[in-house]
From TrEMBL:
Native organism taxonomy: Eukaryota, Metazoa, Ecdysozoa, Arthropoda, Hexapoda
Molecular function via GO: nucleic acid binding; zinc ion binding
PROSITE patterns, per database record: ZF_CCHC
Keywords, ordered alphabetically: Metal-binding, Zinc, Zinc-finger
SUPFAM superfamilies, A to Z: Retrovirus zinc finger-like domains
Name of the protein described by the UniProt record: CCHC-type domain-containing protein
Length: 240
């Protein structure tokens, strides 16, 4: 089921908006069933638990500015081994025409792939691209071979977890971090890096889950929880 983000029209507090949404749902003779989640940034998200509540919130989102439907993301894949001379932006038609095995017409009206960013070593003859794929066609692109220009490329699901180098939280890069002080990945305290940690000889303490491991550990429960959350917020087109 979709989630809905509470908006704050000018002159209204989040509590007032929440009360207005509640009254509108109740007015439709619906017994509200939803979970409310408040993010660290202060965003209030309503997660309906049944169809009746979902339909009521969808209607409110359509006819007012109180709610915005939080749509699921498109899944991402990484295409490896693309020639650095290959232009990915605006290349959908060429990609589909060169790979008829995908079974998608080159002149299809809808957007099939959206290039997101380039990754991999610089200064090489080949590179990698992370692209978003229309959920309707995701199964055709996951773990397959694509021909792009003069290169034979491999694709895989892209499930890398972004971790900030400043605060060590998951989900954003350091360039978008509000933290002013470096957080130590070893002890979890602010003001120094791991190389300068005064508690270097002691057991590590993860700033994210308080576990006895380095904050960059791939076995961190907070990292796993974030990754599972990303999966839940992604439309893989299973129902297609």
């Amino acid at each position: 089921m979709p989630s809905f983000v509470l908006q704050e029209p000018e002159g209204k507090t989040s509590t007032e908006v929440r009360d207005m949404v509640w009254n509108q749902v109740v007015a439709k003779k619906v017994r509200p069933r939803f979970q409310t989640v408040t993010t660290k940034s202060g965003k209030v998200i309503l997660k309906p638990m049944d169809k009746e509540t979902t339909d009521a919130l969808k209607h409110i989102a359509r006819v007012s500015t109180l709610l915005q439907e939080d749509r699921l993301r498109w899944p991402r894949i990484i295409i490896r081994g693309i020639g650095t001379y290959t232009a990915m932006v605006g290349s959908q038609k060429d990609l589909l025409a060169q790979n008829p095995e995908l079974g998608i017409e080159a002149d299809v009206d809808e957007e099939v792939v959206k290039p997101v960013f380039q990754t991999g070593p610089r200064g090489k003859s080949t590179t990698n691209w992370v692209v978003e794929v229309n959920p309707k066609y995701y199964s055709k692109f996951e773990s397959t071979t694509l021909y792009l220009g003069f290169m034979r490329c491999r694709t895989n699901a892209y499930k890398v977890v972004t971790q900030c180098h400043m605060c060590l939280r998951h989900g954003h890069p350091a360039a978008k971090c509000n933290e002013k002080e470096q957080v130590c990945p070893h002890c979890g305290r602010k003001g120094h890096k791991a190389l300068d940690c005064p508690a270097a000889e002691a057991d590590p303490t993860c700033v994210n889950c308080r576990g006895k491991h380095n904050a960059r550990a791939k076995t961190c429960s907070a990292r796993t929880a974030y990754l599972l959350g990303q999966v839940r917020r992604t439309d893989y087109g299973i129902a297609q």
